[in-house]
Amino acid sequence: MGMTREEARLKAIEYFDKAHIYLNDEEKKNLEIADMGLGRLDEFGIEIHIYINTERYAAKEMVLFPGQICPEQIHPPFEGDIGKEETFRVRMGTLYVYTEGGGAITDIKAKIPEDKRDAFHVFNETVLNVGDQCTLKPGVMHWICGGPEGCVVSEFSSRNMDEYDIYADPEVVRMHGV
Q: Which run of H or of E encompasses 167?
């Protein structure tokens, strides 16, 4: 049996502490543990603290455990908006970012579980270490993965509407349990 949601929450708090990101007790209690409806937190998911999400902008802190993948997705236009633009900045550890272009699946650092390989199509790899950042424009297919020690990542973006995200894997239910 894999990691439970509560185990993931407690482990994420440890990561935030290591990264010197202070969360109060209420924020720790209310961390978003997104298992993507797959129930495989050791492999797929993301742990999130949302600072703010308005009609204009959003900011959050995210944890990805070693090898944990936030599945391939795109942020489409919605309600007259062009879609989410997001910047990832690594605070601790290493983050692998995958976008369109790039080589074959065997040339990347992330390890995609065999039963989910057909749900990944973009392999242009960017490796972000502490202090590195990258920005993804709206409409860019992408996925991310925690490096060998996992990572803590700040995300700054335009309005965040996760319920509109489109995933390559039809089994993903982004808002499951949120």
A: strand 166-167
Q: Cα–Cα distance between 118 and 102 in angstroms, integer? A: 17
Per the DSSP assignment, residues forming a β-bridge with 127 are 96
What three-state secondary structure class fits 25? Answer: helix
Residue 79 backbone zone (phi > 0: left; psi -120 to 50: alpha; other: beta): left
Written as six digits, the tokens of 62 are 């995210």
Q: H or E element: which one contains 13?
A: helix 5-18
CB 151 within 8 A of CB 102: no
Taking alpha carbons only, the member of 77, 69, 164 closest to residue 119 is: 69
The bridge status of strand 46-53 relative to strand 58-64 is antiparallel
Which amino acid is located at 89 in the chain?
R
Instruction: Report how far Cα 95 is from the mean position of its chain's Cα atoms.
Output: 9
pLDDT tens per residue, the chain (178 residues)? 689 999 999 999 999 999 999 999 999 999 999 999 999 999 999 999 999 999 899 999 999 999 999 999 999 988 888 989 999 999 999 999 999 987 777 789 999 999 999 999 999 999 999 999 999 999 999 999 999 999 999 999 998 888 889 999 999 987 655 6
Quickly list DSSP for 155-167. Answer: EEES---GGG-EE
pTM comes to: 0.94
- The length of the chain in residues reads 178
